[in-house]
């Protein structure tokens, strides 16, 4: 397996983060196939990826819980690695429907890993989350910050999967596993062709904000303004999705050169409050966003942002795009996708 020409299966590859990572992997010369059940994305993303990259990527419409069909897909042994993005990802929804989250995220990953094992594919880049840190006592959080008590079922599914991967590596060091703990991905591809497109009312701040700005939704709901933060709203580490995608390719390069089990934070290392992000968006777009403060949302934590020094040191990676870039590209995407 060489760095310049590997064959990669990307689960959840038509989703927000997966599609942007596919673009970056294609730019580095890898051969990509996508597996997605399209529960929260559209097959049109395949054509948009082709428009950006010049490559028509094969799409397998499958659920990762379908052990038999996943096994058939990877049984030929021709895949060198799996980038695993597939999974439910809404904090509030996970509180309301924990069984579905455990079934899909944890059960689906076990099914996928069994198929990989049987097919001789032992390299995985896993899409984890800063939610595994729960409500940290101090910020910023590093990869050594305790992960004992995520604040919601979504975070617990991510932590369970991390523990499964750690046990798998301990049992068989032939596995090559990179776990990437995301903070808050926002923005969109600068082409305006791919971006975050949630079904129904968005669960994340930026798509909610852009849908209010474009008139799909009447008012932005701010979930709590009484947190112990400078302006009372939650603080997060917002990272441009293109920077995040480049973090994946940096991690994969490292893993090809040095097979390992490793965990890296991917964020900017800077906290931004909900009100600060809204202000940035208004400045970047010239719009005024109507807003309403409502009660805190169960499962949210007051503040969290990343210590990203390990990724810089080991991967040579750091985020370079600004909050203004995030807002501009998200707004460009929202307007473009409605045409």
Describe this structure in words.
This protein has helices spanning 16-27, 44-53, 67-74, 91-96, 98-119, 153-171, 205-214, 241-257, 274-285, 309-315, 323-337, and strands at 7-11, 31-36, 59-61, 81-84, 123-129, 176-182, 184-186, 220-223, 235-236, 238-240, 261-266, 272-273, 291-294. It is built from eleven helices and 13 strands. It has 339 residues and is α/β, with parallel strands linked by helices. The longest helix has 22 residues, at 98-119. It has a domain at 7-187 and 238-267: NAD(P)-binding Rossmann-like Domain (Rossmann fold). The termini are far apart. The strands form four sheets. The protein has a seven-stranded parallel sheet with strand order 3-2-1-4-5-6-11, sandwiched between helices.
CATH class of one domain: Alpha Beta
- Which geometry do the CA atoms define? globular
Q: How many whole angstroms does the radius of gyration measure?
A: 19 Å
Helical fraction equals 40-55%
Q: Characterize the largest beta sheet: strand count, sense, and whether it forms a barrel.
A: 7 strands, parallel
Helix- and strand-based class? alpha/beta
Q: In percent, how much strand structure appears in the residues? A: 15-25%
């Amino acid at each position: 397996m060489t760095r310049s020409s590997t064959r990669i299966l990307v689960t959840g590859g038509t989703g927000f983060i997966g599609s942007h990572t596919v673009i970056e992997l294609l730019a580095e010369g890898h051969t990509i196939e996508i597996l997605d059940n399209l529960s929260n994305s559209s097959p049109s993303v395949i054509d948009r990826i082709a428009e950006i990259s010049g490559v028509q990527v094969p799409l397998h419409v499958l659920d990762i819980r379908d052990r038999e069909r996943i096994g058939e897909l990877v049984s030929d042994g021709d895949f060198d690695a799996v980038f695993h993005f597939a999974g439910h990802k809404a904090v509030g929804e996970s509180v309301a429907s924990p069984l579905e989250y455990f079934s899909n995220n944890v059960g689906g990953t076990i099914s996928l890993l069994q198929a990989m094992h049987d097919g001789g594919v032992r390299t995985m880049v896993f899409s984890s989350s800063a939610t595994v840190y729960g409500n940290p006592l101090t910020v910023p959080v590093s990869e050594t910050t305790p992960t004992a008590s995520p604040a919601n079922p979504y975070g617990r599914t991510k932590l369970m999967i991390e523990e499964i991967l750690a046990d798998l590596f301990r049992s068989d060091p032939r596995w090559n596993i990179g776990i990437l703990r995301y903070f808050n991905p926002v923005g969109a591809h600068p082409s305006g062709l791919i971006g975050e497109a949630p079904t129904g009312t968005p669960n994340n701040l930026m798509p909610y904000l852009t849908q209010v700005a474009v008139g799909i939704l009447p008012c932005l709901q701010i979930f709590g303004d009484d947190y112990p933060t400078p302006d009372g709203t939650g603080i997060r580490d917002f990272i441009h999705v293109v920077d995040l995608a480049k973090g994946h390719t940096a991690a994969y390069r490292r893993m090809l050169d040095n097979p390992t089990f490793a965990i890296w934070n991917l964020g900017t290392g800077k906290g931004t409050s909900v009100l600060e992000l809204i202000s940035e968006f208004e400045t970047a777009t010239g719009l005024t966003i109507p807003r309403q403060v409502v009660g805190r949302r169960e499962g949210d934590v007051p503040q969290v942002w990343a210590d990203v020094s390990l990724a810089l040191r080991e991967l040579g990676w750091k985020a370079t795009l600004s909050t203004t870039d995030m807002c501009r590209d998200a707004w460009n995407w929202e307007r473009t996708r409605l045409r």
